[in-house]
Design a protein that fits this description.
Helix content: 40-55%
Largest sheet: 4 strands, antiparallel
Number of strands: 9
Distance between the termini: 61 Å
Length: 339
């Protein structure tokens, strides 16, 4: 998939990624940049695998300053592709209930759609520096790559997928808001230094992987719950050890402090997520609401009226009545100027 080749170096089998980095035999990912080396080995666990360098890239200050505007087109394309992928998933849901597997063509399209969305999100949040472009086909110079194998699914898990995804939805919602907060901090730092701090970069990458894995679970790409690997796939390493070959890549070995950063921004995101929902509901409850009806000269309500068109029969006038949670508050006649 990524133009992988194997070379014999000093008698040992060495694998080379598409970027030209040499790796030890048996490695699943490039130890330098995180590209997938052994697609079959990576796909064994059936999870949605994300490969990205855990070393923060260098940006230009201009690209950082205008990153929000540069991300508009990829974001629009991601939204459009996401809508198409949802309809494709609805079709594959019925197929998976019958056959126990998502059709290969739909699985490939949805997987490539999510791959593009992951690249677009990573670019907009300064995890990668290369513009994602408009192609769904994986390229050798992609800074972030994904892979997922198509295999059998439990029919009961497919049938109840929406309900099974609810616990992860709470974590993912908090992670999404936390990721936005993290992006603000990263943007402020990268604007002056051209690079994000390694701890914040790795925390952002982990939360992006959480978002992508949750979407993959909802879209029937994988049977694995998305929270696996939230805090990395191996124990923390020191900043000095992180400079050594093998510490980076998709092995997801974080430097010390990354897990703490993930936890902090998850908590902050969760609190803000709950607060925003409570605030929006409170505002909505206090907004004035009205019922519209027609009343004749005797004070009898002849009919209720929808918002459009507001027409009453002859001999009746149009009134509006403010309502709240306890019922009607009062009513007043409407003139043509009020419509």
């Amino acid at each position: 998939m990524l133009g992988i080749k194997a070379d014999a170096v000093m008698g040992d089998e060495m694998s080379t990624c598409a970027s030209g980095h040499t790796n030890d035999e048996g490695a699943k990912y490039c130890q330098q940049c995180g590209l997938v080396l052994d697609v079959q080995a990576v796909a064994i666990d059936r999870n949605f695998n994300v490969a990205v360098s855990l070393e923060p890239p260098t940006h230009t200050r201009v690209s950082v300053f205008f990153r929000l505007f540069l991300s508009i087109i990829p974001s629009i394309m991601s939204a459009f592709l996401g809508i198409v992928a949802v309809f494709a998933t609805i079709a594959s849901w019925f197929s998976a209930l019958i056959t126990g597997k998502v059709p290969e063509g739909i699985h490939r399209f949805v997987a490539r759609t999510l791959d593009y969305q992951t690249r677009a999100t990573a670019y907009s949040l300064l995890v990668t520096a290369n513009y994602p472009g408009a192609s769904l086909t994986p390229r050798a110079n992609n800074e972030i790559t994904t892979s997922v194998a198509n295999g059998p699914l439990n029919r009961w898990a497919v049938f109840w997928r929406i309900f099974l995804a609810l616990p992860a939805a709470l974590l993912t919602g908090a992670g999404y808001v936390g990721l936005l907060l993290l992006a603000m901090v990263t943007w402020s730092v990268a604007l002056f230094t051209t690079r994000a701090p390694r701890t914040l970069h790795q925390a952002s990458a982990s939360l992006i992987r959480l978002q992508s894995r949750y979407t993959a679970y909802c879209l029937l790409l994988t049977p694995e719950q998305p929270w696996h690997g939230l805090y990395g796939d191996a124990q923390d390493v020191s900043p000095e050890d992180a400079e050594q070959p093998g510490a980076q890549g998709a092995q997801w070995r974080f430097v010390k402090g990354t897990r703490r950063a993930i936890t902090i921004f998850l908590i902050l995101g969760g609190l803000l997520y709950v607060g925003l929902n409570i605030g929006i509901q409170a505002i909505a409850m206090h907004l004035p609401q009205y019922d519209y009806f027609c009343m004749d000269e005797m004070g009898n309500i002849t009919s209720k009226v929808s918002l459009s068109p507001m027409n009453c029969p002859d001999g009746s006038d149009l009134f509006k009545m403010r309502i709240n949670g306890n019922g009607w508050v009062g009513y007043a006649p409407l003139s043509d100027a009020d419509l």
